[in-house]
Hints:
Layout: H1 2-10, H2 29-33, H3 37-44, H4 47-54, H5 59-67, H6 79-85, E1 87-91, E2 94-99, H7 103-107, H8 124-133, H9 142-153, H10 158-162, H11 175-180, E3 188-189, E4 198-199, H12 208-231, H13 254-276, H14 279-289, H15 298-318, H16 328-333
Antiparallel strand pairs: 1-2, 3-4
Helix pairs in contact: 9-12, 12-13, 12-15, 13-14, 14-15
The structure holds heme C (4 copies).
The site of one heme C (HEC) has 20 residues, from helix 2, helix 7 and helix 8.
Amino acid sequence: xxxxxxxxxxxxxxxxxxxxxxxxxxxxxxxxxxxxxxxxxxxxxxxxxxxxxxxxxxxxxxxxxxxxxxxxxxxxxxxxxxxxxxxxxxxxxxxxxxxxxxxxxxxxxxxxxxxxxxxxxxxxxxxxxxxxxxxxxxxxxxxxxxxxxxxxxxxxxxxxxxxxxxxxxxxxxxxxxxxxxxxxxxxxxxxxxxxxxxxxxxxxxxxxxxxxxxxxxxxxxxxxxxxxxxxxxxxxxxxxxxxxxxxxxxxxxxxxxxxxxxxxxxxxxxxxxxxxxxxxxxxxxxxxxxxxxxxxxxxxxxxxxxxxxxxxxxxxxxxxxxxxxxxxxxxxxxxxxxxxxxxxx
Length: 345
Ligand code: HEC
Ligand code: HEC
Ligand code: HEC
Ligand code: HEC
């Protein structure tokens, strides 16, 4: 009850925005550490984990909070920041911030699936289905396990960007390269005769087919999420003289940054399509070419976003990546993403 009250009063989100994890349903990183020690150690070195220590104390965060009329001390508890920066758990009904971006930020709140996803008595497919029906973002679905990246890295709050100067997006975000650096934590191996995978102490490489699927599905999910951001934009992008407005940080407004990203993604999808001839990509391009890039088109962008998300699911369901060797030269050029120098206070 208490946690619900605290969350409810902190911020009002619209239906298109990422919702924070419900602290009443999270179990925290410690609960995963028991069986996924190597994963947790890897995660601890990532910016996702480390930001817990530095983000709220930074000058940049204080400035954003101030402009939004929040006290800097509330950053780690206010849902308008927590939903992308932190993980909360409930203790005796009171929510506490216990980590930065953590396991459950990407895999889903785990209280309902933690005891299900590893049940030896079930066949692997059944095990995954049971876990997913209890809210797990299971890696057997690339869409499920990738969609959260875009919900956070494509910022969906116009005033946070236009008014408070928060980044609108992560410059250069691309899922395969951004997963392949400090974020990667593939330690499970299937041993012959075992029904359940077990831990290796070595980081496993991603099979080529999997890399292709992450890369290609990611393009559709990215496009969908950027369109969703455009669907919540209301501020005018141009001034009275018809010139694009620049924010004090020198960037264009929320809507313009996302629309530039949409056009860039459509261009990328067009060139991939020329190599691979994927039906879902040609449908996405048809939707893209019908878009009117102007104000007052929120519905259009929301609908396009939903349709492209469905195409991502269809694409994923139908393909295993084996037929997309044509993009290997592109994938080979991607650089695994590591965060810039460790930030210290
Ligand atoms: C009691 C041990 C145990 C705990 C606790 C546990 N896991 Fe697991 N997890 C496993 C085992 C065993 C597997 C391999 C299951 C299989 O082969 O399908 C696994 C698999 C996974 C997978 C990959 C599924 C696949 O087959 O690709 C993910 C993701 C995962 N766990 C996440 C988590 C997270 C997040 C937590 C904490 C909220 C957690 N686990 C807690 C034992 C555990
Ligand atoms: C929709 C998700 C989202 C929300 C909501 C959000 N952030 Fe962020 N924030 C991010 C992401 C993603 C980054 C990393 C951006 C990048 O890659 O440059 C970030 C980066 C930052 C940075 C570093 C900025 C810089 O210039 O390097 C600060 C500070 C920050 N956020 C503060 C906040 C505060 C304070 C709030 C709440 C008022 C907040 N954020 C809400 C997703 C979000
Ligand atoms: C930034 C998002 C993100 C975070 C944070 C995250 N994961 Fe994952 N996790 C993924 C993705 C994406 C995959 C699928 C990778 C692939 O394609 O094989 C995955 C895969 C896994 C797997 C299966 C790996 C394998 O060997 O096949 C396990 C187990 C797992 N995660 C556990 C965890 C645990 C435990 C934590 C917290 C310490 C965690 N994850 C944090 C996104 C995340
Ligand atoms: C809950 C929100 C959230 C989710 C989900 C999420 N991220 Fe992040 N990610 C962030 C924030 C916030 C930062 C910035 C952290 C900081 O430095 O303060 C970040 C930073 C990163 C960085 C470090 C970038 C740099 O150069 O500093 C990488 C790499 C990254 N994310 C990859 C991913 C991938 C890949 C996924 C999905 C598998 C993902 N993230 C999912 C919020 C999220």
